[in-house]
Design brief:
Layout: H1 2-15, E1 19-25, E2 33-38, H2 42-54, H3 56-65
Helix pairs in contact: 1-3
Length: 92
């Protein structure tokens, strides 16, 4: 999974103008990784993930790398907003 991300997925995301701002590996879980992406807005994020999922190159990579079964057991996605962009009236 990590190899696929580094060798294939990142180049596809780059082609789609997805700004990956960091990639980390979980020390105690060698098969887990975390990456952070900067989006201009939620609508752009949603549309870009749809485009990525339907991308022909991604479909070929996924088919090739998952010939023996899925590489990813689960995906967790968290949308965050900078604390500096929140106002006092927007709540906790």
């Amino acid at each position: 999974m990590i190899n696929r991300f580094l060798t294939d997925t990142l180049s596809i995301l780059d082609r789609l103008d997805v700004e990956v701002i960091g990639t980390w590996f979980v020390e105690d879980e060698p098969d887990q990784m975390v990456y952070m992406v900067r989006w201009p807005n939620r609508e752009h994020m949603t549309q870009t993930w749809k485009t990525f999922s339907a991308d022909t190159q991604w479909q070929k990579v996924k088919e090739r790398t998952e010939a023996d079964g899925p590489l990813v057991a689960s995906i967790t996605s968290t949308v965050m907003t900078s604390a500096s962009r929140r106002t006092a009236t927007s709540g906790p």
